[in-house]
Amino acid sequence: MIDARLADWLLDSDPAPRWQVERDLLGAAPEIWQATRARVAHEGFGRELLDEEDDDGAWAGGAYFPADFAFAEDTPQPWTATTWALNDLREWGVDAAALAGTAEKLADVRWEYENLPYWGGEVDVCINSWALSNGLWLDADVDGLVDWLLEHQQDDGGWNCEWIDGSRVSSFHSTLNALLGLLDYQIRTGDAARVATARCGGEEYLLARGLFRRRSSGEPFDDRVFVLFHPRRWFYGVLPAADCFRRAAHADAVAPDLRMTDAIESIRSEREDDGSWLQGHRLGGDVRFHVDVRPGQPSKWVTFHACRILGLWDGAHPSRPFSAAT
């Protein structure tokens, strides 16, 4: 899938992406990538973020926003509070044992919305999906969040964080995040039956739209959907959507759906001559530290994700022409 030069470039990285490159792109023996993964909690990105945990198990004194955040219309979302820290640590592959006691401490942390308990979630689909995934990872009692997501699925098969304001039409962003939470539940518990119908409805919502099209016109719902960047945080794009379906294909032992073809080929079309992909965008908002390059520079994270997605796709389907309107 990748040549030696590209492999060497990707391996010259923090342990967080390196172990995944070893496992998923290079097929390294388990003892190799597991040893690298074990380093994530002790050095680099993982160690730095773990060291920022507060005594109460939170980060920056808040659940979703830092305690000192001044809410203003022109102030971008910061990425320093608890939910974002847990998302990063989990996605980097930190062993839950490195956060021993955190789940119990967070039981006393409250969401900014109506002072609701952390592991009980609140009213936002995306927030609850992240709480579900993080709770499963840390062995917290988040079973009720599965029921909450099942109960708040829209009639069109997807989800929308604005349901509480009366929205009855699903959102690409909310649907992707809900699917990721339900998929994490299935993978970690083995209880595929409980979430099968909901996952099928949400996946069909995205697949019927080719992962990026408006159902009404066939046009991209947002021009930024083709921009490839890392970290994603919450924002929707063809790269994280395709990666969700990659994970789902592995979990369900099926080939990726051909309705993803144009989305996949849009990713392929961004590949540079040297085999890398560029960072396309960086979300605004405070961070503790950046884990990837500035826009316009070759990104190891984006390159890793794109190579992994194309590796699965090309193993199941021949390349097909890209016809999406960009």
What do these coordinates show?
- 45% of the residues lie in helices and 1% in strands.
- The model is unreliable at 321-326 (pLDDT under 50).
- Strands 1-2 form a two-stranded antiparallel ribbon.
- By secondary structure, it is an all-alpha fold.
- It has helices spanning 4-11, 15-24, 30-39, 44-50, 82-92, 102-106, 125-138, 143-151, 172-189, 192-207, 238-252, 261-268, 300-316; strands at 277-278, 298-299.
- It has 13 helices and two strands, in the order H-H-H-H-H-H-H-H-H-H-H-H-E-E-H.
- It starts with a helix and ends in a 10-residue tail after the last helix.
- The radius of gyration is 19 Å and the shape is globular.
- Helix 11 (238-252) packs across helix 13.
Short description:
The chain has 326 residues and is mainly alpha-helical.
Per-chain topology:
Blueprint lengths: L3 H8 L3 H10 L5 H10 L4 H7 L31 H11 L9 H5 L18 H14 L4 H9 L20 H18 L2 H16 L30 H15 L8 H8 L8 E2 L19 E2 H17 L10
Helix pairs in contact: 2-3, 2-13, 5-7, 7-8, 7-9, 9-10, 9-11, 11-13
